[in-house]
Amino acid sequence: MASRTVAVAVTDGVPIFELAIPCEVFGYRRPDLTDSWYDFRVCVPAGERPRTAAGFAPETAHGLDALVEADTVVIPACRDVHDDQPAELVAAVRAAHDNGARIVSLCSGAFVLAAAGVLDGRPATTHWMHADLLARRYPKVLVDASVLYIDDGDVLTSAGTAAGLDLCLHIVRSDYGAAIANALAKRLVMPAHRPGGQAQYIDGGNVVTDMNQLAPLLDWARRRLDQPLTVSALAEQANVTTRTLIRRFHTVTGTTPMNWLRNIRVEHARELLETTDLPIDRIAERSGLGSSANLRHHFTRTVGVPPSTYRKAFSAG
Description:
Blueprint: E1 4-9, H1 16-26, E2 38-44, E3 62-63, E4 72-75, H2 87-98, E5 102-105, H3 110-115, E6 123-124, H4 131-137, E7 142-143, E8 149-151, E9 155-158, H5 162-176, H6 178-188, H7 207-222, H8 231-238, H9 242-253, H10 257-275, H11 280-287, H12 292-303, H13 307-314
Helix pairs in contact: 1-5, 5-6, 7-9, 8-9, 10-11, 10-12, 11-12
InterPro entries: Class_I_gatase-like, DJ-1/PfpI, Homeodomain-like_sf, HTH_AraC, HTH_AraC-typ_CS, INH-QAR
Domain HTH araC/xylS-type: 215-313
Protein name: Helix-turn-helix domain-containing protein
């Protein structure tokens, strides 16, 4: 696989965490995972040496004009959502999009994309604290503050802070497959896959307690994906009522037990398609999705392509 160019923009006052995410995910070559990795570039305004919010000043030979030539452009969080975004950056993002680049924003970086017009008529998300402002300032943007990230093809946006990691890992999964993305997630000590539709903000005073109580059940279920698993069976294993189980699932995962289970099964099917030569019907059985028709339905709906197409693109063989 040819190296893919990823360019991240740095302007004065950028928050350090959102900048560090793409540097960590895309900026390190990982020969033990794959022979090919991203060609990563840090880009700054011409003639300037901007400092991050933490005071760091990156050393780089790339100006914002390098964004236009990149395959993927990442815009971290902006310094202040109430300010006008830097005109040079906005123009570079617009030009990169016109040139066919994949445009990615992390957290409040969505304000830069909106200013460039690339979010007009598209679904997009940002940190829940800034979602109302984004919607008011840019009414053509279809703002959804309830999700972790949105993949709208050539434009991707994420919610705040840690959701940027989820989106960047999602990009690795799209580019290099589930096996490599899962290995990278393990190295980063983070969940292998949080679906973009998972809630970004979950209110409740017992989140930590519910997470600790639910974790053993999630591990138990992952080891039994090929078995029939119902809400009642999960509740019985957790020794709680179905009502309590559903509440805990929503608190911890932002979704229902069956939606979570279906997502995990699709993820397991992705790995089997990449790493084995099992026929589709056997993968459907081992992932717990039942029939090959059911696998094709849920896989295509979740991943965007049929299992056979995915296997051709990412099979290790």
